[in-house]
Each structure stands twice: as C-alpha cells, then as structure tokens.
C-alpha cells in the first residue's frame, strides 16, 4: 500500500520549517547573485510515536519512519543570474491510520493499515533568478514522484525595493498538477487514477525598521481542485475544491548586548472547509563565538475541525465525511534546538525537534480527541561547503 501526497509529505508539513527541513530553507537575497558556490547536504530521520494499545482497534500500532536525504546547490551565473538546485530522496516505512471505529467505552479507536508499507519519493526543484539594481525575478520548476503519485509544479516571483532599501515588495504565483494512481488491493474499491490542480498567489512586504530590526508580512490565496479525498481511508469523501487564505508576519531583531537575534512569527490560516488555525513561532539565535551559533525554538499550533469531520466512520452517513486526524481539532507544541558551526568554507548543522499534538492543547474545546494525533521526533545532520 502506498501513501497519498499528504501522507508522504508529513515531514515537511509538520516541522517548523515551512518549505524545507531545518537548515535547508532559502535565505533572503540582496539584489545580486550569490558571490560563492555552495553545496549543501542534509540527512534527516523522522520517527512517529506508535499508537497506544488502548487507542488501537485493529492493525499494527507502528507508524511512519522516514529517512530523508537532501542536496542543494546555489551558485551565481555571471553578474546578474543565480541558480538553485534542490534534490530530495525520501524513503518511508510503517503503517498509517485506515479509519476509526467506536470502542466499547464509546470513544473512537484507530484502525491501522495491516502490513508495514515501503515507499520511495524523489523530488527535484530548479530555480533561476535574474537580479537588477533594485529588484529581482525568479522562476522555478519542480518534479516529484512516488510509486502512486506524480506532481509537476511551476512558480514565478518578483521582488523590488525602494531606493533607500528600507521597503521591499514582492509577489509570486505557483501552479501544480498532480496525478494519483493508488496502489490496488484485493477487497478495496479504490479509484484507479485521478488528478488535482493547485494555484497559489502570494504578496509580501518587508520593512527595515532600524539597523537591528525588520518586519515582514505576507498574504497568500490558494485554490485546490480535483480529487482531494484520501483513497487509502475506509471512508473519506471530501469536496472537490478547497480555497485557503493565510496571513504570515515575521519580526526579526538583533540584540547587540547579547550578540543574539530574536525571531517571532505568527500565521493565521483559514479555508472554506471550516478549518481555522493559528501558529506562533519563537526562536532565539545565540552567537556563542565567531564560529558557533545555538538556536532553541518553540512553536505552538492550534486548529479547529473541518465541517465534514467526524471522530468515527459511518458507512451509512451521506454527504462529505472524513475521520482523518489532520482534519480534527487539536493543538500542538514543537520544541527544537539547532546548532551551527562555521570554519573557513565549511558549515555544520545539527538540529532536533520534538512534536506533540493533543486535544487539550487546542485553544477551543475539543469534546472528542482523535486517537491518532501525532507525536514525532526529528533529527537533522548537515554540512555546507562554499567555494
């Protein structure tokens, strides 16, 4: 049995890095290409906690373990162009929630898939950027492939600054075309093939407040259409369209007396499926000396449930319905630590995160907690070389 895109990308969706694993997120660029070529490698091990026996109705309690290898190349092409190439190889094993049933005490229990699956995912993204005096423009192409899932994406963005460099405005758009061909299994009536499309537009504004502080705010609008259900669930019928808004604000401040930087982020998300989420990120980047930096972090997340979410499956229920724990109400805490060591042309990165989701952590009241809420650990080791 294979997993859907949402399942295979659990690692990227749940960690504190929004677009990549810790240490691989793109950095802000001035209006000039990279002056050096940098090769980066990251290895990450992601491990989900097993389902507790008392919450398990059937199947094995062992959940996903994912090994991720990432490679990145950034380089300048002449005086006005920059190139970024990212490649990711992901191997996944374990079992996933198949559905829920009502236990003898009336509370939902998890029905897990039977045998542990083995899955591979490969992802390639290439970005090209053109730099001007006070602006830059970029285009990116991406391809992702699994045994049962193929995705192509295209993105473009443009950023421009005022002459005093205190204000930067940006806009971007990305499209994705995905094809799903679920692994067939005797006794299950799954679709043979379907697809979905995504379109996202983003506008952002960055303001330099002083020599030691800046703030950035961004607004995004996304539309997903096509087959949005999970074919590997017992009962999962979702709308064929999803419209989502997200507002993100980031504050950065350097504290000279401490030789440290404070990062504060907030994200508000809402969609027409009824989900509203709030995310608060706090990180402290402490320079120990010229070649060593330590960054502890804390993240709080809370969301409401989808309009068609139900704690337990019911095959006689009509209309949209899903018992997917990702659509349930819950809150979550992520604690992390990141260490960077620099020496001449080398940088070594070590990072670790611990994530715990729980109904009691939600801002609103959760009457019935989903028994498959996640807990996971993530460890990342990496190295960069510049020349």
What do you see in this structure?
The chain has 387 residues and is mainly β. It has one domain: Beta Barrel (Lipocalin). It is 2% helix and 60% strand. The chain contains 2 helices and 21 strands. A 16-stranded antiparallel barrel has the order 1-3-4-7-8-9-10-11-12-14-15-16-17-19-20-21. Strands 2-6-5 form a 3-stranded mixed sheet, with no helix packed on it. Strands 13-18 form a two-stranded antiparallel sheet. The radius of gyration is 22 Å and the shape is globular. The N terminus is likely disordered.
SSE map:
Elements: H1 5-8, H2 10-14, E1 38-48, E2 56-58, E3 65-77, E4 81-94, E5 97-102, E6 108-112, E7 117-131, E8 135-146, E9 149-161, E10 167-180, E11 194-210, E12 213-226, E13 236-237, E14 241-255, E15 260-271, E16 276-289, E17 292-303, E18 321-322, E19 330-343, E20 346-358, E21 375-386
Parallel strand pairs: 2-6
Antiparallel strand pairs: 1-3, 1-21, 3-4, 4-7, 5-6, 7-8, 8-9, 9-10, 10-11, 11-12, 12-14, 13-18, 14-15, 15-16, 16-17, 17-19, 19-20, 20-21
Which key features would you list for this structure?
single chain, 387 residues, mainly beta, Lipocalin, three-stranded mixed β-sheet, 2 helices, 21 strands, 2% helix, disordered N terminus
């Amino acid at each position: 049995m294979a997993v859907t895109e949402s399942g295979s990308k659990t690692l990227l969706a749940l960690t504190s890095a929004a677009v990549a694993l810790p240490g691989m997120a793109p950095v802000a660029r001035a209006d000039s290409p990279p002056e050096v070529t940098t090769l980066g490698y990251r290895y990450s091990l992601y491990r989900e906690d097993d389902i507790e026996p008392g919450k398990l109705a059937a199947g094995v309690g062992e959940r996903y373990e994912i090994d991720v290898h990432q490679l990145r190349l950034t380089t300048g092409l002449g005086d006005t162009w920059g190139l970024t190439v990212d490649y990711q190889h992901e191997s996944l094993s374990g079992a996933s929630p198949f559905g829920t049933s009502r236990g003898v005490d009336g509370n939902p229990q998890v029905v897990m898939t039977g045998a542990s699956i083995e899955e591979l995912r490969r992802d390639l993204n290439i970005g090209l950027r053109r730099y001007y005096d006070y602006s830059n423009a970029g285009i990116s192409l991406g391809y992702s492939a699994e045994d049962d899932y193929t995705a192509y994406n295209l993105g473009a963005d443009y950023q421009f600054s005022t002459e005093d460099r205190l204000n930067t405005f940006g806009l971007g758009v990305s499209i994705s075309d995905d094809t799903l061909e679920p692994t067939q299994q005797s006794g299950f009536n799954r679709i043979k093939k379907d697809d979905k499309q995504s379109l996202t537009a983003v506008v952002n504004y960055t303001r330099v407040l002083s020599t030691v502080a800046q703030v950035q705010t961004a607004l995004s609008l996304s539309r997903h259409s096509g087959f949005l259900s999970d074919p590997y669930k017992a009962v999962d019928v979702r709308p064929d369209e999803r419209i989502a808004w997200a507002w993100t604000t980031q504050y950065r401040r350097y504290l000279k007396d401490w030789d440290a930087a404070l990062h504060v982020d907030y994200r508000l998300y809402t969609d027409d499926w009824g989900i509203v989420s709030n995310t608060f990120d706090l990180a402290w980047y402490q320079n120990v000396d010229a070649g060593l930096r330590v960054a502890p972090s804390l993240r709080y997340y809370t969301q409401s449930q989808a309009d068609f979410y139900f704690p337990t499956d019911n095959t006689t229920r009509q209309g949209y319905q899903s018992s997917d724990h990702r659509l349930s109400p819950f809150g979550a805490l992520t604690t992390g630590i990141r260490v960077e060591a620099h020496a001449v042309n080398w940088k070594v990165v070590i990072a670790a995160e611990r994530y715990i989701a729980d109904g009691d952590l939600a801002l609103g009241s959760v009457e019935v907690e989903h028994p498959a809420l996640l807990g996971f650990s993530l460890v990342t080791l990496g190295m960069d070389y510049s020349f």
